[in-house]
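Could you help me review a protein record that somebody else here produced? Here is the record exactly as it was handed to me:
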Amino acid sequence: MKMVIASKPNLMKLSLFYGCDESILKNIDSDETLFRIKALIRRQFKIHSDSICLCRNIEYDIFKKRVLKNKSEISLGEKPLRIIDYLLKFRGFFVSSENLENGVYPANSKNKNGSIRFHIHKIRQLIGEDIIISNRTNGYKINIH
């Protein structure tokens, strides 16, 4: 998702023409800017609220980047949360191991694949075995109910 904050109205039209998802004037209210940024993030997750229900009593807060079970936070760590976040953006589809690694880790990281498997194992232990589906050919898919 791309957003441009322009200082001149004609730049807004130009940025939208060239593929920007949102364009706003620099001098608008800061609350409006925040609302538009949050709307873009919700659009990326394809939802209309601040959280996604993973299963009956577990939800993921897209803005605070945390998993809640019965409204209490489950401590997962940064990488597992990034994995959940990335898979939720593509929910309903398998994500290849390579795409997941590239989406979660910086370009210069090494030993990503073993680490991905380790973190997915940790997610399954804390949230549930069926939360992430693995397929040797297709990769990983988040399984939300």
